[in-house]
Amino acid sequence: MHPVLVETGPWPWWAYPIIVLILALVAGLVQWLESRRADSQPLTATNWTLLALFVLAGAALVIFAVNRLAPIYVHSYGVMLLIGLAAGTWWLNRTGRAHGFILEDWIDFALVILLSGVVGARLLYVLLHLSEYGSAPVTILYVWEGGLTYHGGVAGAIIAGYVFAGARKISFPLIADLSAPAVALGYAFARIGCFLNGCCYGHESHLPWAINFPSGTEVGGLPRHPTQLYASVASFIIFLILARLQPRIKVRGNLFLGYLLLYSIYRFIVEFFRRGATANVFGPLAPLTEAQTASIVVGLGALIWILVRSRRIEPEGE
What we know:
By secondary structure, this protein is mostly helical. The protein has helices at residues 15-35, 45-69, 76-96, 103-128, 150-168, 172-197, 227-245, 254-270, 290-309, and strands spanning 4-8, 72-75, 211-212, 223-224. The chain contains 9 helices and 4 strands.
């Protein structure tokens, strides 16, 4: 496992122009996206000067912060989460053009969903483990130490997506359907991050593909089910299924409900092989885990809603 992907800093002098170039490319990409808007105005010499100063100031700030705090650790999970976010945004842009969306719309949407998903995932985890935070409530904010639930993240993302759609006057069922394959694709990459991080591990196993986690970790020295990779493979399969079904869905919103159903089925099954904090037994319904209980509720709810909505003869408008 490689929880830390890269260790960087302090930087030598020759790294400084590279940082400036990277920030300049990012700024150029942002300006290119802005230029694609129908109401965009060409940049004046003053605008270009201000942009150059912004890039230089940003580079100076980054270099100072890294050298001051060095070494800086770039964690594998964070990198894979960003790759998943980029992959999902790419898919949204690819399929959303036919409905009049541009890349900038999806970047805004992805950032809103990411932040609200993290908040929702943390809130549900805290509610399920209140006793752990009674003596030090401030640790509720320590998201980087772990403690997120995917079902809470989905709930937070749905609420934020509904608000986003209303603010932009977009059909929520349409944006939900377009998002379904993107969510599955992003989740597949995020679970690879879990594997590299060594979290969300499985029970002890002696199957040929069992993984020996490094000694010194919580589960080091024992071969275990690579449940993180099970999850990643399952999510890639779900993505392919949803991508195939996307142009065939007649009732708007049913594709996203289909994602919730497929995810719930996968998650219920994989929980039998999973252990650790992410597989705590849900007391009232033992031996079911918290995730299995949530999967039953979400999966049945999605299935019932699909059946009810599918009785409509006319497809919903966009």
